[in-house]
From TrEMBL:
With S4 and S12 plays an important role in translational accuracy. The gene is rpsE. One of its GO terms (cellular component) is cytoplasm. This is Small ribosomal subunit protein uS5. Coiled coil: none annotated. It comes from the Bacteria.
């Protein structure tokens, strides 16, 4: 489920629902059902956010997830159409391996990782989920990996060197 809408800042954001979970609580009168939604929001230009929402109805859970994702926006350093370097993100039992790829490769990734990378604007990458395939943990491991990415310019500035010395 994809939706496009304009952010008040003038940036057009796209949202994608990664996972909807149904949770039940047994009470005296029967079962009470609630829904949780895992949502990713991005502009396909290096900005992406992930959020989750819980509610009694699915649309409300998605709306809350989108609001949460907007608050958790981050910038992903891109080197052309791919990532600057390889990284393994860990979260719980999930490990996500992200590797840069040559132009024209496309996004080779599964489910949750694919959604995040596409909305972040990464066009050429190879990814592999290691360990668990729980969507929540895979998404968090992907976010950890993307937050750890550093562009050559950032590394050169930190080391007080020129970019040509780093590459």
């Amino acid at each position: 489920m994809n939706k496009n809408y304009n952010d008040p800042n003038g940036v057009e954001l796209e949202e994608r629902v990664i996972h909807i979970g149904r949770v039940s609580k047994t009470v005296k009168g029967g079962r009470n059902f609630r829904f949780s939604a895992l949502v990713v929001v991005g502009d396909r230009n290096g900005n992406v956010g992930v959020g989750s929402g819980k509610a009694h109805e699915v649309p409300d859970a998605i709306r809350k997830g989108v609001e949460s994702a907007k608050h958790n926006m981050m910038t992903v350093p891109l080197q052309g159409t791919t990532l600057p370097h390889e990284y393994i993100g860990n979260f719980g039992a999930a490990k996500v391996l992200l590797k840069p790829a040559v132009q024209g490769t496309g996004v080779i990734a599964g489910g949750a990782v694919r959604s995040i990378l596409e909305l972040a604007g990464v066009q050429d990458v190879t990814a592999k989920c290691l360990g668990t395939n729980n969507p929540n943990n895979v998404v968090n491991a992907t976010v950890v990996a993307l937050k750890a990415m550093r562009s050559p310019e950032q590394i050169a500035k930190k080391r007080d060197k020129a970019v040509s010395d780093i590459l």
